[in-house]
Amino acid sequence: MPVKETIEKSTTQMIHDVRTPLTVLGMLHVTLQNHLAKAPEMNEELSILKAELGKIEQILAKYRADLRGQLESK
User: Fold this and answer.
1) How does DSSP classify residue 73?
2) Which of 9, 10, 25, 37 is deepest in the core (most CB within 10 A)?
3) φ, ψ dihedrals at 20, nearest 5°
């Protein structure tokens, strides 16, 4: 298998492996938000959780875009 295909396959698998638990955490965030609707003192913590999950998603998207750009330029 050529190096480019190997790198793309490995990267795609890594991103999938990280996004799967991120998706679960995102769904848990929504569940917690619904259950804690009557506990406004938890809003800040839930906002932090959501923001941190978003940061990880952005890192993955940037990594994927950067890698694709590097592979396409070769």
Assistant:
1) T
2) 25
3) -60, -55
